[in-house]
Amino acid sequence: AVLVYHEDALSAWQAPCLSGHMHAMPWLAPVVAFPFVVGICLDYDVFLLTKVTEFRAKGFEPIHAIRQGVCSTSGIISVAGLIMAGCFVNLMRSGMIFLNCGAFIMVTGALFDTFFVRTLVVPAAMSLFGTLQWWPSELYWGVGHLHPRSPSD
Fold it and tell me: Is 144 helix (H, G, I), strand (E, B) or coil?
């Protein structure tokens, strides 16, 4: 946002909503946009992690549960991210620099989380942690311990 509104990085596009003609950015725009971006990002990650945990509880190994979780949620999270970005793009049509800047931050944050963080960063971090990410629960001990045998077996 600083590059766009303070340094005029996208002036070649000649879009009024991305103009840095004032060479300034309202200080309140990032403060207001931050909770929205964090809320959206956490919502998508909770949905992804819930699906991964469901697959792990079904007996999948950690890496396979992560793959299945990413594959099963990719469509819905991608569409939700695009819809959210599309809603915020409409705020950029306003004549107020505060709304333009805040909407730009929310659009780039939603798209960055939807197509980069959720698809690459979160699965990579989960793969590095392996079973350790489920440590306080039964899922930590592995597939054999998920469904313990009864004494009659």
Answer: helix
